[in-house]
């Protein structure tokens, strides 16, 4: 089988790339090792930067997002029993974020791809990449136990942190940077009304907590926990009690509890791979970088990669220009490292680090106090949170 672009992975990055390329008549095939149901049901992040929303609109998949997404003009930071609002719209000249679950973004993109091209091969096993430094690379895989080969012009590695794409770059070429944090996030999803109309980021002596939502009737909350914790040790009642303890009395009284739909524990890490291009292979999304979720940058960084990659491939097929292909890695990495910095800063600002001496905790409190009382500091926070320009 032949195509122009082989895309490894049907997460939001791979799906969005395929959708944008199709608008310019560029053929692609997506290889996904999981089933469609598995991909569509994965619970992930849900805060979209304005640039991501604009890109989804450009791709023609934002009808439901525009109907159901929740526009947020700001969020709150809570510490020492007080809440302080960060006015995103006012501090950034009108920019906002939109709450719309990554699960819903994925479903919208899959529906669009199946309706238009039906170019997704689900349950593609044993994927391997070949001849990446040639003009005609290929991807081999198994479908229903039968060996298959996909020949292409380019390969887009959108298959996540554990995927084959990054591992296909020689170790002599690839350089990685990583920081693993000494805690994780325990998340709970429930059909209960959110405690607030906007997100609340809480810094507490017992640890960080995030009060978020997926809709006006569905709550998504997280608490900082040890990486050694077991999910079976956290019944719903214990999670809700811990969440309530990290809120101000006013918000704690308003917290509505209910049975969980989904619970999970996720470790936190910062990770970047360089370069993002090797021959005819491009890395995008979690294959290239991971951020702790504190800054709400994971899906948004993937979208910005696809912004640059889709334009590079469109320029190549539209007129033979390779300038954007040559600059892809460098251009993406400038924005990636700034988002990594912001996510790292938000994480260190709001979490309790178990081995830190009391002095560092006091420094945290002093910085939080400075951030919420300085317009300059709040502006820097707001402009990063709504998303730096492409």
Counting DSSP E segments of at least 2 residues, the number of strands comes to: 20
The number of helical runs is: 13
Largest pleated sheet? 8 strands, mixed
Strand content: 25-35%
Low-confidence stretches: none
Query: What best-fitting shape do the alpha-carbon axes yield?
Result: globular
Reported by name, the CATH topology of the largest domain is FAD/NAD(P)-binding domain
CATH class of the largest domain: Alpha Beta
Domain module tally:
2
Rounded radius of gyration (Å): 21 Å
Task: Please provide a written account of the structure.
- The model has no long low-confidence stretch (mean pLDDT 95).
- Helix 1 packs parallel to helix 6 and helix 12 (358-373) packs across helix 13.
- This protein is α+β, with helices and mostly antiparallel strands and 390 residues long.
- The protein has 13 helices and 20 strands.
- It has two domains: 5-70 and 100-178 and 269-347, FAD/NAD(P)-binding domain (3-Layer(bba) Sandwich), CATH 3.50.50.60; 182-268 and 354-385, D-Amino Acid Oxidase, subunit A, domain 2 (D-Amino Acid Oxidase, Chain A, domain 2, 2-Layer Sandwich), CATH 3.30.9.
- It has an eight-stranded mixed β-sheet, with helices on both faces.
- Helix content is 38%, strand content 28%.
Topology, element by element:
Elements: E1 5-8, H1 12-22, E2 28-31, H2 36-41, E3 47-48, H3 50-58, H4 63-68, E4 70-72, E5 74-79, E6 82-87, H5 88-91, E7 97-99, H6 102-116, E8 120-121, E9 124-130, E10 138-143, E11 146-151, E12 154-157, H7 164-167, E13 175-190, E14 200-203, E15 209-215, E16 218-225, H8 236-245, H9 249-254, E17 260-274, E18 277-278, E19 281-283, E20 289-290, H10 298-319, H11 323-350, H12 358-373, H13 375-385
Helix pairs in contact: 1-6, 1-10, 10-11, 12-13
């Amino acid at each position: 089988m032949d195509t122009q672009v082989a895309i490894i992975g049907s997460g939001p990055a791979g799906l969005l790339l395929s959708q944008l390329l199709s608008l310019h008549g560029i053929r692609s095939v997506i290889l996904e090792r999981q089933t469609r149901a598995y991909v569509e049901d994965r619970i992930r992040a849900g805060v979209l930067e304005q640039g991501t929303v604009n890109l989804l609109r450009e791709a023609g998949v934002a009808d439901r997002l525009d109907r159901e997404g929740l526009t947020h003009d700001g969020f709150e930071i809570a510490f020492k029993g007080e809440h302080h609002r960060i006015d995103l719209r006012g501090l950034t000249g009108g920019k906002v974020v939109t709450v719309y679950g990554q699960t819903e973004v994925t479903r919208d993109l899959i529906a669009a791809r199946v309706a238009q091209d039906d170019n997704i091969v689900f349950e593609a096993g044993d994927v391997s990449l070949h001849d990446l430094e040639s003009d005609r690379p290929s991807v081999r895989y198994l479908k229903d136990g039968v060996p298959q080969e996909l020949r292409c012009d380019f390969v887009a590695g959108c298959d996540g942190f554990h995927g084959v794409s990054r591992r296909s770059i020689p170790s002599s070429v690839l350089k990685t940077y990583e920081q693993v944090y000494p805690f994780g996030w325990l998340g709970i999803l429930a059909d209960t009304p959110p405690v607030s109309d906007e997100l609340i980021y809480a810094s507490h002596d017992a640890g960080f907590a995030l009060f978020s939502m997926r809709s006006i009737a569905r709550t998504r909350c997280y608490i900082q926990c040890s990486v050694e914790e077991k999910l079976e040790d956290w019944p719903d009642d214990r999670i809700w009690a811990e969440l309530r303890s990290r809120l101000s009395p006013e918000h704690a009284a308003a917290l509505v509890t209910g049975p969980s739909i989904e619970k999970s524990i996720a470790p936190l890490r910062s990770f970047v791979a360089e370069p993002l291009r090797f021959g005819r292979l491009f890395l995008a999304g979690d294959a290239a970088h991971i951020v702790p979720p504190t800054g709400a940058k994971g899906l948004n960084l993937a979208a910005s990669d696809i912004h640059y990659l889709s334009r590079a491939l469109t320029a190549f097929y539209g007129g033979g220009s390779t300038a954007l292909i040559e600059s892809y890695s460098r251009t993406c990495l400038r924005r990636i490292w700034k988002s990594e910095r912001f996510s790292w800063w938000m994480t260190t600002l709001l979490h309790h680090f178990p081995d830190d001496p009391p002095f560092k905790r006091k420094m945290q409190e002093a910085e939080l106090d400075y951030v919420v009382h300085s317009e300059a500091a709040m502006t820097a926070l707001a402009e990063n949170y709504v998303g730096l320009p492409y």
